[in-house]
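Interim report, section 4.2 (structural modelling).
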Amino acid sequence: MASQKRITKELGDLMNSPPPGIAVALADEANLYQWKVTMEGPAGSPYAGGKFDLSINLPQNYPFKPPTVVFTTKIYHPNISNDSPPNSGTMCLGMLKDSEWKPSTKMSAVLEFARQLLKEPNPDDAVETKIAEQYRNDRGAYEKEARDWVKRYASGKK
Amino acid sequence: MDSEDEFMSEPPSGDEIDFDEGTQDSDIGSLSGDFDHDHDNGFGYEKDILANPQKPYEVDYRILSPKDIHSHQERQFNEVSSIIELPPEQAAILLRYMRWNKEKLIESYMDNPEQVLEAAGLGPTLAASPKTKTVKGFTCEICYEDDPTMQTYAMKCGHRYCVGCYSHYLTQKVKEEGEAARIECPFDGCHRIVDSKSLKLLVDPSIQDRYEVLLTRTYVDDKDNLKWCPAPECEYAVECAVKKRDLNHIVPTVRCAYDHSFCFGCSLSDHRPAPCSLVKQWLKKCEDDSETSNWISANTKECPKCRSTIEKNGGCNHMTCRKCKHEFCWMCMGPWSEHGTSWYNCNRFEEKSGADARDAQARSRHSLERYLHYYNRYANHEQSAKLDKDLWIKTEKKMTSLQTQSNMSWIEVQFLDTASKALQACRQTLKWTYAFAFYLQRNNMTEIFEDNQKDLEMAVENLSQMFEKPVNELGSLKVEILDKTTYCNRRREILLSDTAENLKKGTGCTSLV
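Predicted structure of the assembly:
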């Protein structure tokens, strides 16, 4: 199967030269398909200073099927669900849909895209419509709430 | 759709018409040539019947086999390809992108080829016909294999991957995602559409077949003048020029090569004489429990004060509403106080308050009875239609036993089969005449319609009776059965012609106004 070599290579690249603010590791040394990512909130966004844990699951037929990306740290963001499990932390990214996913897309691109989304939410494609509305209409309140959540859930103090 | 429908058919008649018709679409005309070679088997006989004059309740249509549909598409690819000077497989992508609007495609392509190509996912064109090759020092960006003997492939966009990955990608798109016309290059951000030549180079024959099926499906789905036969597993499509806006004036009944008869407008089984919109309305009416509320309004009354629904449970007409304690007379609906203290003495019959309530009550009762009148007859014929299958099997048995009991040949006992088919067709028509009649506006046409309906019904019952006689009597009844069969068919024709003509003129249906 193509996936092992590809995943090993991608993982190696990500560990050797990690993209800014992103750290990747295997959740379990014996399992290539389960990744644990720590993402720093981008500077200049209300998430700055926060550390967010993401759980990434690569399907067996990766890269022909898209990975699933889930925020395990609670976050106040229009595109990230804060629903109760199993939907909590799921992201609605166009590129991660079966029909739009391309096998040439790399995990580094996915992760950078996710981080970019922290900087620039996309309220038109929101999972949390209320947050999206607030983001559009009352940016200040949104930023304050987001910062509060960072303090509460993503300050790195466990 | 029920599989029973396939029995709903007359002997092949003049319905399948006109291969030479001067159609508006030039591409359709070009198709007729295909009938001349390789699969005449299913079609040859129909050409001979083309001479039949068309009846008012019939429409022009043509049956298309999967092969026809395929060559139909090919022809258009080649035609467009020769005009805009691009390879046929690229013309195919453009045509699908433009939803088969050839004129629009050629026009906009002539206007701005780059823009059209870009939008359809064909990007800038570079070189040669597709083939795989090995590339020195190549690493596949999907699997990271770098075996120098590995075959690789790239479309004209230049995004090269190993054949294994490319093929896996395409196979998954076709097989799992059911995608065909819009599969893009595997490179992230490249919207170039994978053309059929490239796909065929890379995937297994079974996937190629699936791809063709999917493409064909989009072709028929994309075109308003084409419809799939709705019968399960049937792979034929029908081409018919009847437009959606005409459906109030025409019931375009068509039949595929397997004799599945259906309405081109709504894909339900033959529902002549009732037009599609009325059928939809009727089916909904029969289905939802609006009839429950009809029962309620026919069997209960509302308290004149608080409007609670009350069903009378005793003989006394002095009603006391359980909810608001209002006292009223069940007969006249007027307040009980007006009746004085005497034991029931409803002399208030003309009282306005009571009269209104009674009127509403009567109207509702009448409407329910009217509906039930038509519904019972509709359901009765539908029930008979459901027995069609049994009837048909019985007919075959009868034919066999008649053959052994009398000295008749198989050909000679065919009259039973003909009679059985006529019965079924007439029942189907009768069924829908009742739904039709329910919505019919009362005018002098109604009487003619009802007479036609009555005549057909009588003819059907007569034939039906005769048909159920013991087998040993059937032989001697042959002439009579043949006569009655012809008469049934004629009555059906008259009814259908009449209603079809009235529909065309736009008279008759209340619901269609």
